[in-house]
């Protein structure tokens, strides 16, 4: 990851797509400490914004996305991002995506133990005026091959 003194918002409004991806990655440092605000500020405020995190069904709209992100961050503390394994990145003048494995360590829930987590993530960004905003994030824990039986619903 790049380290510089630019603020997250300045990077999102003044730079290109690659700067937006890096701004999101920097914002995640606060998220794994339990503070969702730097990440949620990067999401679109339009009605079509979506979040599919590993804890809830997909959420639609800025209010639902903000609540879901805050609920997730409230269960995380003392964390640090360990890195990103980027799978793919593509952008046009107004739309872009990145697929990556995000690796972090933190204390989850009420546990005092530091735990490692890896998430398979897709982020979709859209240019809104002069800023790049996240319009969709999907994250799940699938980072290794899974048997087909893991797809079956159990009641």
In short:
With 155 residues, the protein is of the alpha+beta class. The protein has helices spanning 8-14, 17-31, 37-40, 62-73, and strands at 50-52, 59-60, 76-91, 95-108, 115-128, 131-140.
Salient structural properties:
disordered N terminus; six-stranded mixed sheet; globular; 155 residues; alpha+beta; 38% strand; Nuclear Transport Factor 2, Chain: A
How would you describe this structure to a colleague?
- The protein has one domain (8-143): Nuclear Transport Factor 2, Chain: A (Roll).
- It is of the alpha+beta class.
- It has 4 helices and 6 strands.
- The model is unreliable at 1-13 (pLDDT under 50).
- Strands 2-1-6-5-4-3 form a 6-stranded mixed beta sheet.
- The longest helix has 15 residues, at 17-31.
- It has helices at 8-14, 17-31, 37-40, 62-73; strands at 50-52, 59-60, 76-91, 95-108, 115-128, 131-140.
Secondary structure: elements and pairs:
Layout: H1 8-14, H2 17-31, H3 37-40, E1 50-52, E2 59-60, H4 62-73, E3 76-91, E4 95-108, E5 115-128, E6 131-140
Parallel strand pairs: 1-6
Antiparallel strand pairs: 1-2, 3-4, 4-5, 5-6
Helix pairs in contact: 1-2
The helix-and-strand class reads: alpha+beta
How many domains comprise the coordinates? Answer: 1
What is the number of helical segments per DSSP (H or I, 4+ residues)? 4
Strand percent estimate: 35-45%
Q: Name the CATH class.
A: Alpha Beta
Main sheet makeup:
6 strands, mixed
**The CATH architecture:** Roll
Unreliable spans: 1-13
Mean pLDDT value = 91
Count the strands? 6
